User: Which sequence fits this backbone?
């Protein structure tokens, strides 16, 4: 069995605009949508692998829902990018794709350990999503994207809540049904 891992470093869902000085609203929106879409797409990729590696039926069921939402978010963000004239899309860096996929797909890591990593990441969920909420609050010209992001964040908060509840259940040692 793998040694317990150190908690993953905390990060935010989005590190903020990185590009030319004094970007337009559209440039900030496109930048966020590109990076957010890549993360949602990646999440939709690794979550089924985690479910496959899990022996907990409850976790498997919840991961299916989370995976479906992440995939839907990725598709909606891609569609919005296309509507904004974008024709190419960024992806999660290969190193992160490789290491995070291996971590969550590992059968020699417990579901509790994997959930602990996410609970740690989302410890301050408002800070985690702050760069997105800040951009949402700053959007004046693109109500379509503003409300798309606002409703996607509603799903994200539900996902974090579920991860926390599942973590608490497994931490208490309640056996999985079936």
Assistant:
């Amino acid at each position: 069995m793998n040694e317990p891992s150190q908690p993953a470093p905390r990060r935010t869902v989005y590190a903020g605009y990185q590009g030319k000085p004094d970007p337009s609203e559209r440039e900030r929106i496109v930048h966020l949508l590109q990076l957010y879409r890549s993360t949602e797409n990646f999440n939709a990729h690794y979550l089924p692998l985690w479910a496959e590696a899990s022996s907990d039926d409850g976790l498997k069921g919840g991961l299916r829902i989370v995976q479906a939402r992440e995939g839907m978010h990725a598709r909606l963000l891609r569609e919005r990018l296309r509507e904004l004239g974008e024709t190419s899309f960024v992806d999660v860096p290969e190193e992160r794709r490789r290491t995070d996929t291996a971590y969550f797909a590992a059968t020699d890591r417990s579901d509790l350990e994997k959930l602990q990593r996410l609970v740690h990441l989302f410890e301050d969920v408002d800070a985690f999503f702050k760069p997105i909420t800040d951009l949402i609050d700053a959007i004046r010209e693109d109500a379509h994207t503003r409300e798309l992001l606002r409703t996607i964040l509603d799903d994200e908060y539900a996902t974090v809540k579920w991860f926390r509840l599942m973590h608490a259940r497994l931490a208490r040692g309640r056996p999985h049904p079936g």
Notes: Helices lie at 25-53, 57-83, 94-105, 111-121, 125-138, 143-171.
